[in-house]
Model the fold of this input.
Amino acid sequence: MSEVADLIRAVIASDEEFTGSWDAFSVVIRLNDEGVPSGSNGYLYSGAHDFRAIAADPFDIRPAMAAYLRSVYGDGPRPLKMLIQFDRASGRFNVQFEDKDPKRWAVTPADIHGFIESLRPKFE
Done:
C-alpha cells in the first residue's frame, strides 16, 4: 500500500499545476518495455465541470513507479500503460493497467471532451 501512496505523492510533486486548487486527478502513464515511464497525460478536476491538463514528469516519478511496479508485477513483464485516479478529499484511488492495447486511453481531437470526462474519478 505504501508504494501506491508514494507513487501518488510523486505524481502530485511532479507538476506545478497541483499547487492550485483541485479535487481529483487522473493521469495515464506510458511505459517502455522495461516499465520505465516514457510520458504521461492527464487532468486535474475541480468541481463538477472544471478541469485542466497535467502531465507527470517521467523522470520525477521513475523511482516511485519502479517500486510500485515491483510490488505488483515482481520481475514479470511490465504493462504498456497505467491509469491512476485519485480523489483528494476522500483519499480514494484507482489504478488500472493496460498490458496489450497501446490505443487504450488514447485521446483524439474528435473525442477530447468525452475522453476527459471518462477519466474523471468516480468513487461511489
Summary: The CA atoms of residues 24 and 63 lie 23 Å apart. The radius of gyration is 14 Å. The chain is about 30% helix and 30% strand.
